[in-house]
Amino acid sequence: MVSGCILEVLGYIGRIMSYHDPFNENGFLMQIYNLTIAPAFLAAGNYLTLSRMVETFGPENSRIKPFSYPRIFIPCDILSLVLQALGGGMASAASHSNKSPETGDHIMVTGLAF
Questions:
Q1: How far is CA 77 from CA 46, 54, 70, in A?
Q2: In sequence order, what DSSP letters do the residues of 6-41 get, joined into one string?
Q3: Measured between alpha carbons, how far is 29 from 35 in angstroms, rounded to an integer?
Q4: pLDDT tens by residue, 18-42
Q5: 67-88 burial string, b = 16+ CB within 10 Å, else e?
Q6: Of 14, 49, 57, 93, whose CB neighbour count within 10 A is largest?
Q7: What residues have CB less than 8 Å from 103, skipping those under 6 apart?
Q8: Could you tell me the pLDDT band of residue 69, with boundaries at 50, 70 and 90?
Q9: Radius of gyration of the chain (CA)
Q10: Could you tell me if residue 62 is left (phi over 0), alpha (psi between -120 and 50 degrees) or otherwise beta?
Q11: What is the per-residue pLDDT for 19?
C-alpha cells in the first residue's frame, strides 16, 4: 500500500510539472508511468486485506480459499500491466515510424479490460 501511495504522489507531481510546462516530456512520462502502475500495488493490498477478512469471518462464507485471493488476482494484475506496457510500446513505435498504432491500442485496451 505504501508503494502504491508513493507512486500516486509521484504521478501527481508529474502532472503538476506538466501543468507548469505542457511540453515537458519528463513530467508526462513521470505521471503516465506512475499513475498506471500505482493502482496495481493498491489492489494487491486490497487482495491481502480481503484474504484476511475471509479468514477472520470464516472461510466457509467464501467460495474461494482465503489465501487464494492474492495468488489469483496479483498475477492477473501483473498480466494486465504487461499487456498495457506491450500495447503502449507497440503503439508508440508504430506512431513514430508513421504506421497505424491500432494494433498496439487494441492490446493496451485488452490489458485495461483484463
A1: 12, 21, 10
A2: HHHHHHHHHHHHHHH-TT-HHHHHHHHHHHHHHHHH
A3: 10
A4: 999 888 888 888 998 899 889 999 9
A5: eebbeebeeebeebbebbbebb
A6: 14
A7: 90, 91, 94
A8: very high
A9: 18
A10: beta
A11: 92
Whether 87 contacts 112, CB under 8 Å: no
**Percent of the chain with pLDDT strictly greater than 90:** 57
63: which 3 cell numbers?
467460495
CA distances from 106 to 32, 92, 93, 101, 103 (A): 18, 13, 14, 9, 5
104, 89 in Cβ contact below 8 A? yes
Helix axes 25-57, 2-20, angle to 10 degrees: 160
pLDDT of res. 95? 86
Q: Which three cell numbers stand for residue 98?
A: 508513421
Residues in the chain: 114
- Of the pLDDT bands very low, low, confident and very high (cuts 50, 70, 90), residue 1 is confident
